Amino acid sequence: MDPSQRLRTGAAEVAALRSLEGVDAATRARRDELRAWQARRLAFTHGDLLATPRYRDATRFFLDELYGVKDFSQRDAELARVIPTLTRFLPAGALETIADAVELDALSERLDLATARALAADPALRDAPIDDEGYARAFRAAGSRTDRERQVELVEHIGRALDRLVRQPLLGGLLGAMEGPARMAGLSAMHAFLDSGFRAFKAMKGADVFLRTVIGREQALMARIWAGEPDPVGRAGQR
Fold it and tell me: Which tens digit of pLDDT belongs to each residue from 79-116?
């Protein structure tokens, strides 16, 4: 599937998933709690990267823009409108990166909703605050290992692509020149997403160590969860 078609398909799926049509109130509430918990977990797992000036902006981009808990409805609406423009003006590599980000968005929405349903349906978890062990139990009940592995794979794809794209000086100039027109066209959220990723990775001056660290930690966490190990998040050693 070409990037423009991936963008259209992914954008439509994300919009449908975020509407939560037909989802009961208990599951909606659990999904919101889950996202807040996941944001805290990610900040804990990668706290040292957030505290390191070289990696801070890139870590924040992943936590806020790819795994974020904020309302992305404006960005979703803008994406649906801007796909033809992106296809005309951006290089193939940039389009593939945006398509990967939209696929990750849709996959994360599906997995979050499945995990929220597992939390809401399990009598042992339904009324309890989310903790590491409860999350791991719902995680295993919510979806296939293949989907979880694909989620991490997409994070790596996006990071590697951004690291390549920042080496194209014309792209940085193009994004800078697009800021005013994007704002006038009502596309400020989409531009901010693209520009923040580009700037964060450009400032890092090489993403290999950063990406190997993030991906390695997330893969190790998944392995512990699937194995049913105690303390899957690894908090015991931090107390």
Answer: 666 677 767 766 777 778 778 888 888 888 899 999 99
Tokens 């909606």 map to which residue?
28
How many domains in the chain?
A: 1
Residues with Cβ within 8 Å of 186's Cβ and at least 6 positions away in sequence, in order, are 78, 81
**C-beta neighbour count of 16 within 10 angstroms:** 12
Closest of 195, 186, 179, 214 to residue 45, by C-alpha: 214
Average pLDDT over residues 142-158: 91
Are 196 and 65 contacting, i.e. CB atoms less than 8 angstroms apart? yes
Locate tokens 């692509």: which residue?
Answer: 161
The number of helix segments (H) and strand segments (E) in the chain equals: 11, 0
Read off the amino acid at residue 66: L
Are the CB atoms for 69 and 209 separated by under 8 Å? no
Whole-angstrom Cα distance, residue 4 to residue 22? 29
First to last CA, the chain: 48
What domain range is 208 assigned to? Answer: 3-238
Q: How far apart are CA 149 and CA 211, in angstroms?
A: 15
221 is written with which tokens?
């966490």
Quote the CA–CA distance of 220 and 31 in Å, as a whole number: 24
